Amino acid sequence: MKVGLDVGGTKTDAVAVDEAGEIVGRVRLPTGWGPDAVAQTVLDAIAALGSDAGVDLAAMRSVGIGIPGQIVPGTARVTHAVNLGVEDFDLAAALTPALGVPVQVENDVKAAALGAYALHGGTGTVGYLNLGTGVAAGIVADGVVQRGARGTAGEVGHISVDPHGPVCRCGQRGCIEALAGGGSVAERWGRLGALPVRDVFDAADAGDPLARDLRAGIAVGAAAAVRILVLTADVDLVVLGGGVTALGDRLLGDIAAELDASAEASPFMRSLRLRERVELLPTGSPAAAFGAALIGAAPTYETRETVTHG
Length: 310
Prior knowledge:
five-stranded mixed sheet; 2 domains; Nucleotidyltransferase, domain 5; ATPase_NBD; globular; 38% helix; transferase; 13 strands; kinase
């Protein structure tokens, strides 16, 4: 049995995966704030797999964790996970004594990319585009997570596509994240609401000029990210995930229209059939936790090792 956890800023999703690769238990818990509380959330979630989901924890052989922030290569140290109140924390050192099994840690988007790849059959090349508070991507080719020379492979959110566009938190203008990131959209919308991006879509449907501009920017930014993933990594499929994708077909329709518009002007872009290479991760999919479970089960997790089978 392998256990995987997707530790998010508000919720932690945990799954237990059997030898056949089937999810046999799943729980969700609120995530605590700060290093000690994050570690306790992991322990509580694993305990809940046993008590609430009926998983035989005695059969647990590994734990994998997907978490925001940067992971120091070759370690389980998480740095700069600001949404969790974690600046520098070794999760394996904190958890292994209590769990008694190996603990591996990966960035949450890369874990989700691996999970999405495995859930789509585990073949070819898949790009996972996370449209959440920020925008980032993970690329998996033949079961291998692509990290790059310095771990920045997939950071498409900070590619500027409009030099006159809105200022991004990275200091550039017109970055994909500034256009399509939920945090940037909410800030520019400037109106209180539980789900600001949904409010923007609703207001755009009602004809609000600012909302229409913001909604169009989301489509431009997301479509640009799709084109970049295809043109640089030639991925077979771009899977869209993250909180913004809760908008479902409303979002996908806008992105498809933007991709179609660029294809109309270019025979080359038409030949790439971009619209056919994009799909939404199903709502509630455990891709990130599932990917984390696969990572945790690898004997020694490295980005050049195939970890999606067995």
